[in-house]
Amino acid sequence: MYVMSGRVPRIATFTRHLIEMLVAMAAGMVVLGLVLATVLGLAGAPTALDDRPILELVVMAIEMTLPMAAWMAYRGHRRLDVAEMSASMLVPAAVLAGAALGGIVGPHDAMGIYHPLMLVAMLGLMLARFDTYGTHAHHAHHAHAAADPAASSHPAHAPHGDPLVHERPLPPDRSLLRLGAIAGLMGLAVQLVSGLAHPSSVQPNDSPAVFREYAASTTWVPVHLGQLIGAFLIGLAIVVLVRSMRDDRGASGAFSLLSAVAVVIALAVFAVQMAVDGIALKAAVDTWVAAPDVAATVAFAIADATRALEKGLDAMFSLTFGTAFLTAGLAIATGHRYPRWLGVIGIVAGAGLIGSGWMTALTGFSPEAASLAGPTMLAAIAFVLGTSVSMGRSASSTVARPVARPVPAPA
């Protein structure tokens, strides 16, 4: 029989609830955003809100809140829980919209501040209500599984061997799985901090405005080195994840190999991109800002060409890293080692990254590319967070040991 590792840790249940809400929010931004754009198009109104960033902020908050609240209600949360979580998303948007209208922050700055502030508010509320999000079971089948542990096991997935003992699949290397879990969580943290420190108050395709903003930054190089470190850690986590599935038979093992290769290529591209964006472009825009009028035109042309190279590298990175997420998700979805719903999230994140890379290749850092990047990042964060927790749990799981068959005494 299976040796059960006891109750699912409260932190795992907490993390699952967070991931579910992030996925619902990302889906809402995509689906409701398309619905709104279709309605505005039929009415003859502009389908983009780029020239109205405050309204765009409020609309985005509503698009994320509605499906998240609906999912919480479906999962059986109390109305008070749904109202509190909705407030944690809508109140920051309302405060920032008011601050933007009052001139306290720039309209575009408000949009950049909202996402991290909203995530902090959500996490703070969930931690304050840890008993709800860490232990509450929402569906009858959870209660049934708790009452009947045998119902939640999967004998069909047990390895062949001694008929008296069925073991769970043994993680290939517990130390490596722990490293992958830690790398994934640290990579997310480093990327979040680096993203918050990155100047982003102007339209990214407006090269003169972008160059002035970049030239004024005193932390440009450290920010991009931080982004490189964060991407490396996340890539390492994905490699460890798919390595743990390398011995799986069938499609899962094949997709694992493809994902590992895609990660290596993506990180190589990203390293070049950070060298171009974080070092070469900074030097070029500094030269342009300091150049006399006669040489300014030439200096700007050099900086703009460097910027174009950065856009191309960004597109290639999104395409290759998206392929890594997509194939890692397919490996999980077609295997038995990790929860298959994590595979679905990986597939969504990978497809979104590929779409964002394609749009960047065609339109640069345009609003169309940005509209795909936002929801995709939420799905990617959910995937890395969920797989990191799963690897940590797998590294700590108890594995059954074979039990010798009793030998009857001679007659």
How would you describe what is shown here?
With about 400 residues, the protein is mainly alpha-helical. It folds into two domains: about 1-140 and about 155-165, no CATH class; about 175-395. The protein is built from 13 helices and no strands. It has helices spanning about 10-40, 55-75, 80-100, 105-130, 130-135, 140-145, 175-195, 205-215, 220-245, 250-290, 295-335, 340-365, 365-395. Helix 3 (about 80-100) runs antiparallel to helix 4. The longest helix has about 40 residues, at about 295-335. The protein is globular. About 40% of the residues are buried. The model is unreliable at about 1-10, about 135-170 and about 400-405 (pLDDT under 50).
Layout of helices and strands:
Blueprint lengths: L9 H33 L10 H22 L4 H23 L5 H22 L1 H6 L4 H8 L26 H24 L9 H10 L3 H24 L7 H40 L2 H42 L5 H24 L3 H30 L15
Helix pairs in contact: 1-2, 1-13, 2-3, 2-4, 3-4, 7-9, 7-13, 8-10, 9-10, 9-13, 10-11, 11-12, 12-13
Secondary structure: helix percent: over 70%
Count of helix runs: 13
N-to-C CA distance = 30 Å
| Rg | 24 Å
Low-confidence stretches: 1-8, 137-171, 398-405
The gross shape turns out to be globular
Percentage of β-strand residues = under 5%
Number of domain modules: 2
> What oligomeric state best describes the polypeptide chains here?
single chain
H/E element order: HHHHHHHHHHHHH
Q: Average pLDDT across residues?
A: 78
How many extended strands? 0
Q: How would a textbook summarize the main sheet?
A: none
Structural class: mainly alpha
